[in-house]
Amino acid sequence: PPLQVVYMLCGLLTDHKLLMHSVNPSCLQPAAQALVSLMAPLAHTTTYIPYLPSSLMSPADVCTLLNDSTSPFIIGTQTALLQDLAADGLQLSLEIMIVDLDRGELRPSVRSGGGGGGGGGGGGGEAERRPSASHRACRRSSALRRRSARSRAA
Q: Does pTM surpass 0.85?
């Protein structure tokens, strides 16, 4: 859906980590490339892995790669890999924006804002409801456009 695409684009422009997944691996590379193309004339200069096969690394190594990355990324993988992570009891950081290409669903990222408590336990539900930086940036942009349109009409 268009709103999710705009949200992902805002996330990339504000240096968020983006993980896309699909049952069909042939969907991942075109989706990742389309998203990068939307950034033109800007160039995506951080980690770009349009398809990370589940056979390449163990679930624990993948979890470490995704959670401990210090730079933003666009990574695509099969849904089975996320299911393997869950089966092994591994969780992805809330700082990762996760997009299900098959269902058109997006789990927004939540930036850790400096006040204690990383991603461990308790209070996780409240953190997921708090808008991420990219969501706030998109809202500000929309509000500025509305104000600008109103002032031109007046």
A: no
Q: How many CA atoms lie within 13 A of 25 on its CB side?
A: 11
In whole angstroms, give the CA distance from residue 110 to residue 98.
11
* CB contact set of 110 (below 8 Å; sequence gap of 6+): 94, 95, 127, 128, 130, 132
Provide DSSP, 111-144.
---SSS--SSSSSHHHHHHSPPHHHHHHHHHHHH
Residues 6+ apart with CB under 8 A from 7: 97, 106, 108, 134, 135, 138
Q: What residues pair up with 66 in beta bridges, in sequence order?
A: none
Strand duo 47-52 + 105-107: pairing = unpaired
Inform me whether the pLDDT recorded for 129 exceeds 80.
Answer: no
Q: Which tokens in the block code for residue 95?
A: 């700082």
Q: Determine how many CB atoms are found less than 10 A away from the CB of residue 146.
A: 10
Strands (E), the chain: 17-22, 47-52, 73-78, 96-100, 105-107
Predicted confidence (pLDDT) per residue in 58-110, tens digit: 899 999 999 999 999 999 999 999 999 999 999 999 999 999 999 999 998 88
